[in-house]
Specification:
mainly alpha; two-stranded antiparallel ribbon; 10 helices; 47% helix
Length: 179
Amino acid sequence: MSVHVETGTPLHPNHYETKTLDHLGLVSAMIDELGLVEQIDALLPKDEEKQTISHGQAVKAMILNGLGFAHRALYLTPLFFRDKPVDRLIGEGVTADQINDDALGRALDAVYNYGIDSLYGQLAVKSVHTLGLTGGPECQDTLRPPLMRNECRIRGATEEIHDAQRYYRFTLQRGYRPR
């Protein structure tokens, strides 16, 4: 017989439901550990009148959606999350219906207006420092050929975040480009 986790009272089989978590729980936990939602929310504050979820939560939802329901239109995102424990994956009080194309579109607009490269660079630098993976400037130059970057060894973080940021250069592109 099953019991309620918090109260310990017996549950009838009709009183509980099953939701699919798959690998998304691990990804969500890593996003939480890196503090990406909080950092995005600090850089891109939400409009309380128009938004029910924050930009950070919307970006987290898009990451999870992209890892489990790729190549679908944004308006189908609530369908992806309908059988997932959204309150555990995205945040307390968030429902699948709140992760709609309007909320995701507002988040994408905010990211674009802030600057995609700048936001990505700041998130990457914080993640690298949080995990203690920082190498020297020669290791962080994304413009060097891959063979030269592979020569770098990961060592403990020794630089300040603002000093390390200048070494990050990113190019976002769509599609496959053969070399």
